Amino acid sequence: MVKVRAARPAEAEDLTGLVMRSKAHWGYDAAFLAACAPELRIRAGDVTARRVVVAENGRGEVVGVASLEGTPPRAELGLLFVEPSAVGQGVGRLLYRDVLRRAVELGVRRLVIDSDPHATGFYRAMGAVPVAEPAASAASPAAEAGGTALVRFEAAPVPLADWARAWTGGGRAVHLGNVGEFNAQFADATLDREQRPAHHYACLAAFYSPYPAALVLPRPVPRGWTELVCRQLGWTGVEVYDGLLDADPGLAEAVRARPALAALLTGSGLPLVPWGRTRAFGRLAGRPWRDGELRYESKSAAHGLFGRILADGGHPGIVLPRQWRVDGRWAAARMLAARTRAGESTVLKSEHGVGGSGTTVLTPARVRAAGGARAVLRRLPRGPLLVEEYVGGAASRGDEGPRDLTYDGFVDEAGRAHEVGGAVMEVADGCYRGATVGPGVVPGWAEKSLTAFGAAVGRELADSGYRGWFDVDFVADGTGRLAPTETNLRLTGPSIAFMVAARLDALRGAGHLVRIADRVELGARLPEAQLDELCAALARGCAELGAVFVPAIPTGAFEPAPWLGVLVAARSREVLDAAEAWVRAEALAVGAMFGPS
Questions:
Q1: How far is CA 487 from each of CA 119, 270, 351, 492, 521, rounded to the nearest angstrom?
Q2: Distances (CA, A) of 56 to 7, 238, 473, 529, 580
């Protein structure tokens, strides 16, 4: 295990030797190295003044050195060199991240890096951004002697977002992947009884906070997956407890049935974070279950809540679609038929459901093509139905703006509502497919209305006794207004993207856009080892594009129709789109190795 510690003045000469060996690793000739020597020398007095640290391996050998120089708000990465025998072992990554962490603590907001040309790939992979400004040492004697110029990069060190510190107290947490358990408490006819999708989505437990201490999962997960996720997000020491269930979705009860494990998880002093609150989770966590605290998970109850908030005025950018609860299937069919005759599109909803399950969007053309309203109803799952007015989308505004948006926040145990932010979702035919978060994602025309209304919902949830994560989903109408459609009183796909964005910003510098794509089709089922190889290749390829790839849901790859859930991050929309397109193409292409079917 390599660790970072402060350098000692007595080590200065040895550290200079390490620096020169590291420089020579790139094949520079003796004349160039001699010209570099004065610039690269570390003196005893430099160790403190230049904030020099070293990386030390388990045998006590120094294998790397770095310095953080200057005064806030601007500082420089003066040195970052790795012993040639340790190159490729993660030492440089460890030192760079330590420099960024210390820069945050010092109040540095602009970190300048003058990179050797051979190290530019490393700094890009670490999230530093190339800048047009020439490097200060480009005209130095060393540069002239070697015929080479340094390349300037910058990073923007930032602390972990305020909301993320409030979510888990700024520290690590134990993540419980109880997606199936959460869904099962609603007994909704639109949800898979075997909870197979829920157990795949339980893999998102890796991302319930920016830095987990332990993951508790119902099904076994590939070891290579957890190793890659930890490497990409700079995590260490994450314990994984998987394979706790065969069929029953009650993960919290499965933990309680293992007293030693339950004591370990609940006695760690760390927050225990579930996908969503359940009575069984309350027993595990020692938290009283509040009757009715999830009542606004119901779509009709949420609609009533929205109406009460809007009745007070103050939200001119919000419009509430009309909604009717119908008594029986034939009553729904009659209402659907009447709306179809009037040329109106309709949304049919179940009371519950996740990811768009139980939500069907019906245009008049679709109803007629299906053989009429009764034929449509016969094909839907049994259970109570809501009939809702369809809200015309962004296309009617004549622009390419987003159609589906969401606001994320949470209510802490003291009853304070916290804003996390807004996201743009990808939704196809009422079904959620993914989301993008980050600076500038929510358009300016929607941001104020979305934030104000989402915050109002958060306050109402807090007053109702709810504690935990929530979101409010919206669709954009044709006049620049937002229509709230439901609340989710649990973690969600967008919340996962927010967690990863907060971690990457703290790890690599500010400004990450993060996209979660729930389903990336694989061209073939792969054995676990080959899946690991594919994900590692996707991570390398995205890094070359200037993006970060994190596999989010690996277990879908072993289904008969294989797929992956993925996270992609970048600092521009163009790079983000390119990286997602490349990942999808490469994932689909894995089937080509097996030849034509």
A1: 47, 28, 12, 11, 29
A2: 10, 22, 49, 32, 38
Q: How far apart are CA 242 and CA 222, in angstroms?
A: 10
pLDDT digits (tens, 9 = 90+) for 9-60: 999 999 999 999 999 999 999 999 999 999 999 999 999 999 999 999 999 9
Say yes or no to pLDDT of 597 above 60: no
- Better pLDDT: 288 or 252: 252
Q: What is the DSSP letter of 524?
A: S
The DSSP annotation for 351-364 comes to: SS-STTTTEEEE-H
Contact residues for 597 (Cβ-Cβ < 8 A; gap 6+): none
| C-beta separation of 1 from 56 below 8 A | no
Cα(50)–Cα(76) distance, rounded to whole angstroms? Answer: 10
Pairing of strands 74-82, 110-115: parallel
pLDDT of residue 596: 52
The percentage of the chain sitting over the pLDDT mark of 70, rounded to a whole number, equals 93
Which residue, among 564, 488, 559, has the nearest Cα to 183 in the 3D structure?
A: 488
The four Cα atoms 366, 370, 371, 373 give a dihedral, to 10 degrees, of -70
pTM of the model as a whole: 0.92
